Amino acid sequence: xxxxxAYFFRVPPEVFYGIGAAEKVGELAKPFGRRAxxxxxxxxxxxGVVDEIKTRLRSSEIETEVFHKVEPNPSVETVExxxxxxxxxxxxxxxxxxxxxxxxxxxxxxxxxTNGGRITDYEGVGKVEKPxxxxxxxxxxxxxxxxxxxxxxxxxxxxxxxxxxxxxxxxARIAIVDPVMTLSLPPQVTASTGLDALTHAIESYTCTITHxxxxxxxxxxxxxxxxxxxxxxxxxxxxxxxxxxxTGCLMASMAFSNTRLGNVHAASTPLxxxxxxxxxxxxxxxxxxxxxFNVFGDPKKFAHIAEALGEDIYGLTELxxxxxxxxxIKKLSRDVGIPKTLREVGVKEEGIEDMAKExxxxxxxxxxxxxxxxxxxxxxxxxxx
Length: 385
Known about the structure:
The chain is of the alpha/beta class. Helix content is 49%, strand content 11%.
C-alpha cells in the first residue's frame, strides 16, 4: 500500500464567496480601519465597479481614495506610485479591485508599508519578515487567483524581468469572490483569464509535488472551466457560467498556491518581461505545446485531464487518452478566440534564447512532470512562434 507523504495545505485569506458577496465589503472592512486605498486599473474604474465598492465602504463610514494607474504586467514604478498614494492619503488598509495586476500591486503596497524598502528586495521565496497591512481582494476576473495566493508578480522594466514575491506574510486578509463582478468582463479578457486559471489547474495537478487535496481541487477546476468557459465567453451575462468558471478558478488557485506549477508558467513569465505579453494570453498560447511535451511524464494524469475536459476516452490506451488532453485545449482555445502563435502577440524570434535562459531560472521547471533542459524550452518557444 502506498502511504501519502506529509504535506501542508493553507488558504491564508478568509474567503467570502457568492452572488452579491461584494455588497458586504463595507461590513467586512470595518475591523481594518477607517481609511482605505482602493487599488485598481483604468478599465475596471471606467466600468463603474469601483464606484459601487466606494459606496459600500462609505456606508460603513470608511473614507476612500482610488489609485487606478495599474497596468498589465505592473512595474516596480507603479508599486512605488501606489505606495506614495497610500502614504499621502494616510491609508490604513487596501481594497484591491480587478484582475491579478491590481491585486498584486495592492499586496505589494501593503507589504512595503510594514517592511520598507523596494519590492525588488523581496524577490523570491520567504523574504518578507513582517505581515503586510490588511488587504481585501475583490477579483473582477476568473483568472490569476491572486486573491487567495501567497504570490505576487511585478515587472522590472529596465531589466525586462518579471519576478515573483512568495511569502505567507503578503497574502490578502479577506478574499471577496463574487461572480457578479465578472459580468462586464469583455469576451477576450474572459477567455484569456479563463485559460490562465485552467493552466493553474492543469499544472498544479500534474506537477511533481501534488497531494490528494490539491489534486481534487485542481481536477474539479479543470472540469468546471472546461465545461463553462465557452458559455461565459459567448454570453458574459450568463451568471451560471460565470459562477462555475469563478468556482473553478478559485479551486485551481487554492491548489497551485499549495503546490507549484510547471513549464507553462516558467516560459510565460519572460514573455511578459521581454515583450509585455499579457500573462493569460502567454499561458494560453503555450499550454497545449507544454502539455504535448509533458504527456510522457505522467500519462495517467493527462488521461484524467482529457476526461475532465469532456473527451471520450473509452477504449483508448492510457497514452492515447493522454494525448486527447492537449487536443482538447487547442479546441477550447480556438473556440474562445485565443491567438494561435506568439508572433501574433508581438514576440520577436531573436528574443527566444534569452527568454529560455530566464525561464530555466524558474522553480517551476524543477517540479514539471517531465525533466526539462534549456533546449526543450527553446523548442517550445519555436513551436509556439
